[in-house]
């Protein structure tokens, strides 16, 4: 059952951000009855519903107003904003807070045996990535003409498989690049999970609930510092 008067928050169902999102909601005092297979979890102590979806769907759900709030990596947010803007779809969100989890960087990498390379090396090369918009914007900014090969997974094997000369992928510890014999180059985006809001939200009750949650969020962040 859905109820449009309840504040709707989209979080990742299962993946790297799920546990941190659930922990954060708990720390904010939101009591949830989470059932593994359910798309929607209702809070029992506040008018809040939590939608559990794939992280890639979160920006669109918030931009279209299907959800009022969402928690998503800035990498996914920035990519979705560029893609939707190109398609003339709503792409605005209010970024309410940068959260202290989900840190990673989107970086260029190439086969280690080629040794250190300058930006000019990328000219005319094929670069595999899951973030074609962010990469294309970077290449345009740097005036590098390279082709972008879109892959939704296993980007790190693309050079070995002969699908690309280099990659542009998320890195956290660097272990995946190392295991695949790749050398890390320039970081083109640093990313954390962030809390976003639909900018057209006008419902007073929902806005006042958000205004109650935000100081708690600041309190949780300060307590960790
Ligand atoms: O199923 P769904 O679509 O929801 O999930 P997903 O598989 O697309 O995403 P998921 O759960 O892997 O990641 C969710 C978000 O976590 C990402 O969008 C980032 O904002 C953030 N995040 C933080 C990361 C990483 N760190 C990370 N290391 N996302 C992915 N990785 C991958 C990276 O792609 C590479 O394969 O981990 C590998 C590199 O890690 P290291 O530690 O070996 O460098
Ligand atoms: Zn995803």
TrEMBL record:
Reactions that this protein is recorded to catalyse: 1-(5-phospho-beta-D-ribosyl)-ATP + diphosphate = 5-phospho-alpha-D-ribose 1-diphosphate + ATP
Ranges in coiled-coil conformation: none
Name of this protein: ATP phosphoribosyltransferase
Residues that span the membrane, as ranges: none
Keywords on record: Amino-acid biosynthesis, ATP-binding, Cytoplasm, Glycosyltransferase, Histidine biosynthesis, Magnesium, Metal-binding, Nucleotide-binding, Transferase
Enzyme nomenclature, EC number: 2.4.2.17
Superkingdom classification of source: Bacteria
Ranges where the ATP phosphoribosyltransferase catalytic domain occurs: 54-218
GO biological process: L-histidine biosynthetic process
Cellular localization per UniProt: Cytoplasm
Family the entry assigns: Belongs to the ATP phosphoribosyltransferase family. Long subfamily.
Function as written in the Swiss-Prot or TrEMBL entry: Catalyzes the condensation of ATP and 5-phosphoribose 1-diphosphate to form N'-(5'-phosphoribosyl)-ATP (PR-ATP). Has a crucial role in the pathway because the rate of histidine biosynthesis seems to be controlled primarily by regulation of HisG enzymatic activity.
Pathway: Amino-acid biosynthesis; L-histidine biosynthesis; L-histidine from 5-phospho-alpha-D-ribose 1-diphosphate: step 1/9
Names of required cofactors: Mg(2+)
Major subcellular site: cytoplasm
A Gene Ontology cellular-component term: cytoplasm
Molecular function terms from GO: ATP binding; ATP phosphoribosyltransferase activity; magnesium ion binding
Regulation of catalytic or functional activity: Feedback inhibited by histidine.
Residues represented out of the complete protein: 1 to 225 of 299
């Amino acid at each position: 059952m859905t109820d449009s008067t309840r504040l709707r928050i989209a979080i990742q169902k299962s993946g790297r951000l799920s546990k941190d999102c659930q922990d954060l909601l708990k720390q904010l005092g939101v009591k949830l009855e989470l059932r593994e297979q359910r798309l929607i979890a209702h809070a029992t102590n506040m008018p809040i519903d939590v939608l559990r979806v794939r992280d890639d769907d979160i920006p669109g759900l918030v931009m279209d107003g299907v959800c009022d709030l969402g928690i998503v990596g800035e990498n996914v947010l920035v990519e979705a904003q560029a893609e939707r803007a190109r398609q003339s779809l709503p792409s605005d969100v209010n970024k309410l807070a940068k959260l202290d989890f989900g840190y990673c960087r989107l970086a260029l990498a190439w086969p280690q045996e080629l040794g250190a390379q300058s930006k000019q090396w990328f000219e005319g090369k094929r670069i595999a990535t899951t973030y074609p918009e962010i990469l294309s914007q970077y290449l345009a900014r740097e005036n590098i003409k390279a082709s972008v090969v879109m892959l939704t997974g296993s980007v790190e094997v693309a050079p070995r498989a002969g699908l690309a000369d280099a990659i542009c992928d998320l890195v956290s510890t660097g272990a995946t690049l190392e295991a695949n014999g790749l050398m890390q180059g320039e970081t083109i985006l640093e990313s954390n999970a962030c809390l976003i809001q639909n900018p057209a939200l006008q419902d007073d009750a929902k806005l006042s609930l958000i205004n109650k949650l935000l100081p708690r969020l600041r309190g949780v962040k300060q307590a960790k510092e």
